[in-house]
Design brief:
By secondary structure, this protein is of the alpha/beta class. The protein has two domains: 77 residues, Rossmann fold, CATH 3.40.50.10860; 131 residues, 3-Layer(aba) Sandwich (Rossmann fold), CATH 3.40.50.720. It contains eight helices and seven strands, in the order ααααβαβαββββαβα. The strands form two sheets. A five-stranded parallel sheet has the order 2-1-3-4-7. A two-stranded antiparallel ribbon has the order 5-6. A hairpin with a 7-residue loop joins strand 5 and strand 6. The termini are far apart.
Length: 223
């Protein structure tokens, strides 16, 4: 029920509070609030979500920055499982500013977890299956439960499921369960690596947000 001005006032308070190293504004915001205006009001030094245009620009230029938490978590998974990315074909499905777009940049950049040839697919992509079947690495961030099926994936592909949607279920006490964008039971036998939902990318997002906060505390990005 808050107003845009009230939220901007709180953001300004946090910006000027020397005891606060970093913070996030939980998205999405109510319709009456201009989301971009609020994100741009956060001082880049405390923007541990990595959504301020200055931090996005630093990411694009491969400069030290706060990476968006979910893409950062995916990069951590790739590095810690020592998945080879150089020269691989990576297909990212979804072009949001939170996951898809930054993920495509990170996988293409010159780094140990990058150097991929990247194809960014989205809701207007024609013949999507033609792209996914050629992917060595598939990163799916659509928000459509069970969207990616076995016939869309080649043998040995690395499949990273970013989606998480609450769907009805007759097998749980609550009547609901969390579902990813990948049909896990179908795709898992074909994949060399695959992330589950829940318990895959989600916990890595939280851990990455904390890593960014620690960077802010140590002034590693903005000395």
């Amino acid at each position: 029920d808050t107003t845009e001005q009230n939220l901007l006032t709180k953001v300004n308070e946090l910006n000027n509070n020397k005891d606060i190293d970093g913070y996030i504004v939980q998205l999405p915001l109510p319709k009456q609030i201009n989301e971009q205006k609020v994100l741009e009001a956060i001082t880049p030094q405390k923007d541990v979500d990595g959504f301020h245009p200055q931090n996005v620009g630093r990411m694009a230029l491969n400069l030290p920055t706060y990476l968006p938490a979910t893409p950062f978590g995916i990069i951590q998974l790739i590095e810690r499982y020592q998945i080879k990315t150089e020269g691989k074909h990576c297909v990212v499905i979804g072009r949001s500013n939170i996951v898809g777009s930054p993920m495509s940049m990170l996988m293409a950049r010159n780094s140990t977890s990058g150097n991929c040839t990247v194809t960014l697919c989205h809701s207007r992509t024609h013949n999507l299956k033609e792209f996914t079947q050629k992917a060595d690495i598939l990163i799916v961030a659509l928000g459509k439960p069970q969207f990616l099926t076995a016939d869309m994936v080649k043998d040995g592909a690395v499949v990273i499921d970013v989606g998480i949607t609450r769907v009805t279920s007759g097998k749980t006490k609550s009547g609901f369960k969390l579902s990813g964008d990948v049909n896990y039971d179908e795709v898992a036998p074909k994949a060399s690596y695959i992330t589950p939902v829940p318990g895959g990318v989600g916990p890595m997002t939280i851990a990455s947000l904390l890593m960014n906060t620690l960077k802010a505390n140590k002034k590693e990005v903005y000395p």
